[in-house]
Protein backbone atom coordinates (compact mmCIF):
# COMPACT_ATOMS: atom_id res chain seq x y z
CA UNK A 1 0.00 0.00 0.00
CA UNK A 2 1.07 3.58 -0.58
CA UNK A 3 0.23 5.90 2.30
CA UNK A 4 0.42 9.60 1.37
CA UNK A 5 2.56 11.95 3.48
CA UNK A 6 2.78 14.13 5.47
CA UNK A 7 1.14 12.58 8.51
CA UNK A 8 -0.88 13.88 11.44
CA UNK A 9 -0.17 11.52 14.35
CA UNK A 10 -3.22 10.68 16.46
CA UNK A 11 -2.41 9.80 20.09
CA UNK A 12 -5.96 9.30 21.34
CA UNK A 13 -6.23 9.51 25.11
CA UNK A 14 -3.31 7.21 26.01
CA UNK A 15 -1.37 7.76 29.23
CA UNK A 16 1.51 5.31 28.71
CA UNK A 17 4.34 6.29 26.38
CA UNK A 18 4.76 2.71 25.17
CA UNK A 19 1.13 2.81 24.06
CA UNK A 20 2.14 5.51 21.57
CA UNK A 21 5.10 3.55 20.19
CA UNK A 22 3.72 3.52 16.64
CA UNK A 23 3.64 7.31 16.54
CA UNK A 24 7.01 7.53 18.31
CA UNK A 25 8.59 5.08 15.90
CA UNK A 26 7.40 6.94 12.81
CA UNK A 27 8.61 10.22 14.31
CA UNK A 28 12.02 8.80 15.23
CA UNK A 29 12.74 7.30 11.81
CA UNK A 30 10.69 9.49 9.43
CA UNK A 31 10.51 12.92 11.15
CA UNK A 32 10.19 14.66 7.79
CA UNK A 33 6.81 12.95 7.30
CA UNK A 34 5.33 14.12 10.63
CA UNK A 35 3.55 17.48 10.50
CA UNK A 36 1.91 17.43 13.93
CA UNK A 37 0.01 15.56 16.60
CA UNK A 38 -3.59 15.47 17.75
CA UNK A 39 -4.57 14.39 21.27
CA UNK A 40 -7.85 13.83 23.07
CA UNK A 41 -8.60 15.07 26.60
CA UNK A 42 -6.78 12.90 29.14
CA UNK A 43 -3.83 12.08 26.90
CA UNK A 44 -0.58 12.56 28.84
CA UNK A 45 1.83 11.51 26.07
CA UNK A 46 3.49 14.35 24.16
CA UNK A 47 5.78 13.74 21.18
CA UNK A 48 6.81 17.38 21.03
CA UNK A 49 5.17 17.93 17.66
CA UNK A 50 2.92 20.92 16.92
CA UNK A 51 -0.60 20.45 18.24
CA UNK A 52 -3.11 20.47 15.37
CA UNK A 53 -6.81 20.20 14.91
CA UNK A 54 -8.08 18.31 11.90
CA UNK A 55 -8.89 21.64 10.25
CA UNK A 56 -5.36 22.90 10.92
CA UNK A 57 -3.88 19.76 9.41
CA UNK A 58 -6.00 19.94 6.28
CA UNK A 59 -5.07 23.60 5.80
CA UNK A 60 -1.36 22.74 6.10
CA UNK A 61 -1.54 20.02 3.47
CA UNK A 62 -1.50 16.93 5.69
CA UNK A 63 -2.52 13.89 3.68
CA UNK A 64 -3.06 11.12 6.24
CA UNK A 65 -4.23 10.79 9.84
CA UNK A 66 -2.14 7.98 11.35
CA UNK A 67 -3.55 6.17 14.39
CA UNK A 68 -0.29 6.17 16.34
CA UNK A 69 -1.24 3.96 19.29
CA UNK A 70 -1.03 0.29 20.18
CA UNK A 71 -2.81 -1.74 22.83
CA UNK A 72 -3.35 -5.35 23.86
CA UNK A 73 -5.48 -6.97 21.18
CA UNK A 74 -5.09 -4.06 18.75
CA UNK A 75 -8.56 -2.66 19.52
CA UNK A 76 -9.74 0.63 18.02
CA UNK A 77 -12.00 2.30 20.63
CA UNK A 78 -15.31 3.50 19.26
CA UNK A 79 -14.88 6.81 21.12
CA UNK A 80 -12.11 7.70 18.62
CA UNK A 81 -14.31 7.21 15.56
CA UNK A 82 -15.61 10.81 15.53
CA UNK A 83 -12.06 12.15 15.01
CA UNK A 84 -11.52 9.64 12.21
CA UNK A 85 -14.77 10.70 10.53
CA UNK A 86 -13.80 14.37 10.88
CA UNK A 87 -10.45 13.65 9.20
CA UNK A 88 -12.10 11.83 6.30
CA UNK A 89 -14.61 14.64 5.83
CA UNK A 90 -11.72 17.14 5.76
CA UNK A 91 -10.11 15.23 2.87
CA UNK A 92 -7.50 13.17 4.73
CA UNK A 93 -6.85 9.46 4.33
CA UNK A 94 -6.63 7.42 7.54
CA UNK A 95 -4.06 4.72 8.38
CA UNK A 96 -4.27 2.38 11.35
CA UNK A 97 -2.02 -0.41 12.57
CA UNK A 98 -4.59 -1.85 14.97
CA UNK A 99 -6.31 -5.19 14.46
CA UNK A 100 -9.75 -3.55 14.30
CA UNK A 101 -10.45 -2.65 10.69
CA UNK A 102 -11.34 1.00 10.18
CA UNK A 103 -14.35 0.16 8.05
CA UNK A 104 -15.85 -1.94 10.85
CA UNK A 105 -17.38 1.34 12.12
CA UNK A 106 -20.28 2.21 9.78
CA UNK A 107 -19.78 5.97 10.22
CA UNK A 108 -16.11 5.67 9.22
CA UNK A 109 -16.87 3.46 6.23
CA UNK A 110 -19.61 5.78 5.02
CA UNK A 111 -17.47 8.91 5.43
CA UNK A 112 -14.67 7.31 3.40
CA UNK A 113 -17.08 6.29 0.67
CA UNK A 114 -18.69 9.74 0.52
CA UNK A 115 -15.39 11.54 0.19
CA UNK A 116 -13.53 8.97 -1.85
CA UNK A 117 -10.86 8.72 0.84
CA UNK A 118 -8.67 5.67 1.50
CA UNK A 119 -8.67 3.59 4.69
CA UNK A 120 -5.27 1.95 5.18
CA UNK A 121 -5.47 -1.05 7.50
CA UNK A 122 -1.71 -1.49 7.82
CA UNK A 123 -1.97 -4.63 9.93
CA UNK A 124 -3.99 -6.50 7.33
CA UNK A 125 -2.26 -7.73 4.20
CA UNK A 126 -4.12 -8.10 0.93
CA UNK A 127 -1.87 -11.05 0.03
CA UNK A 128 -2.23 -14.75 0.70
CA UNK A 129 0.81 -16.72 1.83
CA UNK A 130 2.01 -20.28 1.46
CA UNK A 131 2.95 -22.37 4.46
CA UNK A 132 6.61 -22.16 5.39
CA UNK A 133 8.91 -24.72 3.82
CA UNK A 134 12.07 -24.29 5.91
CA UNK A 135 14.30 -24.93 2.90
CA UNK A 136 17.66 -23.17 3.07
CA UNK A 137 17.63 -20.13 0.80
CA UNK A 138 20.52 -17.96 -0.43
CA UNK A 139 21.40 -14.68 1.21
CA UNK A 140 22.02 -13.84 4.87
CA UNK A 141 19.46 -13.00 7.53
CA UNK A 142 19.59 -11.46 10.98
CA UNK A 143 16.62 -11.53 13.36
CA UNK A 144 16.16 -9.39 16.43
CA UNK A 145 14.66 -11.32 19.35
CA UNK A 146 13.68 -10.17 22.83
CA UNK A 147 13.29 -10.92 26.50
CA UNK A 148 9.89 -9.18 26.19
CA UNK A 149 7.65 -7.08 23.97
CA UNK A 150 8.58 -3.45 23.32
CA UNK A 151 12.26 -3.75 24.20
CA UNK A 152 13.80 -2.35 21.00
CA UNK A 153 13.71 -5.09 18.36
CA UNK A 154 12.53 -2.73 15.62
CA UNK A 155 14.94 0.06 16.58
CA UNK A 156 17.83 -2.41 16.69
CA UNK A 157 17.07 -3.75 13.21
CA UNK A 158 16.72 -0.22 11.81
CA UNK A 159 19.94 0.87 13.54
CA UNK A 160 21.74 -2.11 12.06
CA UNK A 161 20.45 -1.24 8.59
CA UNK A 162 21.83 2.28 8.97
CA UNK A 163 25.11 1.13 10.51
CA UNK A 164 25.76 -1.68 8.05
CA UNK A 165 25.02 0.49 5.04
CA UNK A 166 27.44 3.10 6.41
CA UNK A 167 30.09 0.36 6.41
CA UNK A 168 29.37 -0.52 2.79
CA UNK A 169 27.32 -3.67 3.45
CA UNK A 170 24.26 -4.63 1.43
CA UNK A 171 21.51 -4.64 4.05
CA UNK A 172 17.74 -4.05 4.16
CA UNK A 173 15.30 -3.72 7.06
CA UNK A 174 12.34 -6.09 6.78
CA UNK A 175 9.25 -4.99 8.68
CA UNK A 176 7.05 -7.50 10.48
CA UNK A 177 4.90 -5.07 12.48
CA UNK A 178 2.57 -2.19 11.74
CA UNK A 179 4.99 0.53 12.83
CA UNK A 180 7.80 -0.95 10.78
CA UNK A 181 5.54 -1.06 7.73
CA UNK A 182 4.66 2.63 8.21
CA UNK A 183 8.38 3.46 8.51
CA UNK A 184 9.68 1.37 5.63
CA UNK A 185 6.73 1.40 3.27
CA UNK A 186 6.76 -2.39 2.92
CA UNK A 187 6.42 -5.56 4.95
CA UNK A 188 3.74 -7.63 6.67
CA UNK A 189 2.28 -7.36 10.17
CA UNK A 190 2.99 -10.93 11.15
CA UNK A 191 0.68 -11.00 14.16
CA UNK A 192 -2.31 -10.56 11.82
CA UNK A 193 -1.36 -13.54 9.63
CA UNK A 194 -3.25 -16.81 10.19
CA UNK A 195 -1.01 -19.03 12.34
CA UNK A 196 -0.44 -21.73 9.69
CA UNK A 197 1.09 -19.14 7.37
CA UNK A 198 3.32 -17.08 9.69
CA UNK A 199 6.57 -18.77 8.72
CA UNK A 200 5.59 -18.67 5.03
CA UNK A 201 4.86 -14.96 5.24
CA UNK A 202 8.33 -14.35 6.70
CA UNK A 203 9.87 -16.40 3.90
CA UNK A 204 8.03 -14.06 1.50
CA UNK A 205 9.29 -10.95 3.35
CA UNK A 206 12.90 -12.17 3.19
CA UNK A 207 13.15 -14.30 0.02
CA UNK A 208 16.17 -15.62 -1.88
CA UNK A 209 18.88 -12.96 -2.06
CA UNK A 210 22.43 -12.44 -3.27
CA UNK A 211 25.06 -14.33 -1.23
CA UNK A 212 26.34 -11.17 0.51
CA UNK A 213 22.97 -9.52 1.11
CA UNK A 214 21.66 -9.15 4.67
CA UNK A 215 17.95 -9.02 5.46
CA UNK A 216 17.52 -7.47 8.92
CA UNK A 217 14.23 -8.91 10.13
CA UNK A 218 12.26 -7.12 12.82
CA UNK A 219 11.38 -9.45 15.67
CA UNK A 220 8.06 -9.61 17.50
CA UNK A 221 7.16 -10.54 21.07
CA UNK A 222 9.30 -13.11 22.89
CA UNK A 223 9.59 -16.87 22.89
CA UNK A 224 8.94 -16.62 26.63
CA UNK A 225 5.85 -14.40 26.50
CA UNK A 226 2.68 -16.39 27.26
CA UNK A 227 0.60 -14.17 24.99
CA UNK A 228 2.83 -13.89 21.92
CA UNK A 229 5.30 -16.79 21.88
CA UNK A 230 3.42 -18.45 19.00
CA UNK A 231 4.05 -15.46 16.75
CA UNK A 232 7.70 -15.28 17.85
CA UNK A 233 8.31 -18.95 17.07
CA UNK A 234 6.72 -18.81 13.62
CA UNK A 235 8.76 -15.70 12.88
CA UNK A 236 11.95 -17.45 13.98
CA UNK A 237 11.33 -20.46 11.76
CA UNK A 238 10.41 -18.38 8.73
CA UNK A 239 13.30 -15.96 9.16
CA UNK A 240 15.77 -18.88 9.15
CA UNK A 241 18.34 -16.48 10.63
CA UNK A 242 22.06 -16.95 10.30
CA UNK A 243 22.48 -14.49 13.17
CA UNK A 244 20.36 -12.96 15.89
CA UNK A 245 20.61 -10.12 18.40
CA UNK A 246 18.93 -10.31 21.79
CA UNK A 247 17.09 -7.12 22.84
CA UNK A 248 16.47 -6.35 26.51
CA UNK A 249 15.11 -3.69 28.87
CA UNK A 250 17.00 -4.07 32.17
CA UNK A 251 14.62 -2.31 34.58
CA UNK A 252 11.60 -4.58 34.03
CA UNK A 253 10.70 -7.29 36.51
CA UNK A 254 7.75 -8.81 34.66
CA UNK A 255 6.86 -9.08 31.01
CA UNK A 256 4.53 -6.49 29.56
CA UNK A 257 0.86 -7.17 30.26
CA UNK A 258 1.38 -10.35 32.29
CA UNK A 259 2.73 -11.39 35.70
CA UNK A 260 5.48 -13.67 34.36
CA UNK A 261 9.06 -12.75 35.23
CA UNK A 262 11.43 -11.71 32.46
CA UNK A 263 13.70 -14.49 31.22
CA UNK A 264 17.43 -13.94 31.38
CA UNK A 265 19.42 -13.00 28.29
CA UNK A 266 21.14 -16.39 28.55
CA UNK A 267 17.76 -18.15 28.55
CA UNK A 268 16.75 -16.29 25.38
CA UNK A 269 20.02 -17.12 23.62
CA UNK A 270 19.70 -20.80 24.52
CA UNK A 271 16.04 -21.20 23.52
CA UNK A 272 16.46 -19.20 20.30
CA UNK A 273 19.32 -21.44 19.21
CA UNK A 274 17.47 -24.64 20.14
CA UNK A 275 14.30 -23.62 18.30
CA UNK A 276 16.06 -21.87 15.44
CA UNK A 277 18.11 -24.93 14.51
CA UNK A 278 14.97 -26.43 12.96
CA UNK A 279 15.40 -24.21 9.88
CA UNK A 280 19.04 -23.12 10.26
CA UNK A 281 21.38 -25.46 12.16
CA UNK A 282 24.13 -22.80 12.02
CA UNK A 283 22.12 -20.06 13.82
CA UNK A 284 24.24 -18.01 16.26
CA UNK A 285 23.94 -14.97 18.52
CA UNK A 286 26.09 -12.00 17.48
CA UNK A 287 25.17 -9.34 20.01
CA UNK A 288 23.01 -7.90 22.74
CA UNK A 289 20.99 -4.67 22.41
CA UNK A 290 19.99 -3.12 25.73
CA UNK A 291 17.59 -0.20 26.06
CA UNK A 292 19.40 2.00 28.63
CA UNK A 293 17.00 4.93 28.44
CA UNK A 294 16.30 4.72 32.17
CA UNK A 295 20.01 4.98 33.04
CA UNK A 296 22.51 7.80 33.21
CA UNK A 297 25.65 7.66 31.08
CA UNK A 298 27.90 5.88 33.58
CA UNK A 299 25.25 3.40 34.67
CA UNK A 300 24.38 2.62 31.05
CA UNK A 301 27.98 1.90 30.10
CA UNK A 302 28.47 -0.26 33.19
CA UNK A 303 25.34 -2.26 32.31
CA UNK A 304 26.60 -2.87 28.77
CA UNK A 305 30.09 -3.81 29.90
CA UNK A 306 28.68 -6.31 32.39
CA UNK A 307 26.42 -7.91 29.76
CA UNK A 308 29.27 -8.15 27.27
CA UNK A 309 31.56 -9.77 29.84
CA UNK A 310 28.90 -12.22 31.02
CA UNK A 311 27.94 -13.45 27.56
CA UNK A 312 31.12 -12.93 25.55
CA UNK A 313 29.25 -10.83 23.00
CA UNK A 314 29.21 -7.16 21.98
CA UNK A 315 26.55 -5.30 23.95
CA UNK A 316 25.28 -1.84 23.09
CA UNK A 317 22.34 0.51 23.20
CA UNK A 318 21.86 0.95 19.42
CA UNK A 319 20.14 4.34 19.72
CA UNK A 320 22.52 5.76 22.30
CA UNK A 321 25.88 4.25 21.33
CA UNK A 322 25.49 2.83 17.81
CA UNK A 323 25.99 -0.68 16.49
CA UNK A 324 29.63 -0.77 15.40
CA UNK A 325 30.50 -3.58 17.81
CA UNK A 326 27.76 -5.83 16.46
CA UNK A 327 28.69 -5.04 12.86
CA UNK A 328 32.32 -5.89 13.69
CA UNK A 329 31.15 -9.23 15.08
CA UNK A 330 29.13 -9.93 11.93
CA UNK A 331 32.18 -9.23 9.77
CA UNK A 332 34.21 -11.62 11.94
CA UNK A 333 31.58 -14.37 11.99
CA UNK A 334 30.82 -14.05 8.26
CA UNK A 335 34.20 -13.09 6.77
CA UNK A 336 33.29 -13.87 3.17
CA UNK A 337 30.61 -11.17 3.14
TrEMBL record:
* D-glutamate N-acetyltransferase-like N-terminal domain mapped to chain residues: 40-124
Check the record and name the Pfam families matching this protein.
DUF1611, DUF1611_N
Cross-referenced InterPro entries: DgcN-like, DgcN-like_C, DgcN-like_N, P-loop_NTPase
Species name: Azospirillum oleiclasticum
Residues in domain D-glutamate N-acetyltransferase-like C-terminal? 129-327
Know the name of this protein?
A: DUF1611 domain-containing protein
Instruction: Tell me the superkingdom of the source.
Output: Bacteria
Amino acid sequence: MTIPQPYLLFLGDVQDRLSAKTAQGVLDWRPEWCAGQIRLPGCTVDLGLPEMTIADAAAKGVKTLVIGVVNAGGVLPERWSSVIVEALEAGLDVASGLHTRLESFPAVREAAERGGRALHNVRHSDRTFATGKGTKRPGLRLLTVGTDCSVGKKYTALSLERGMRARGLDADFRATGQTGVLISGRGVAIDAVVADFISGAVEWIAPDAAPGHWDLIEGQGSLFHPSFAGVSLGLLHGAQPDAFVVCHEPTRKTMRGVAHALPSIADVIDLTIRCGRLTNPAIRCVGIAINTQAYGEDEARACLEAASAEHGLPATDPVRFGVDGIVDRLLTEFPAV
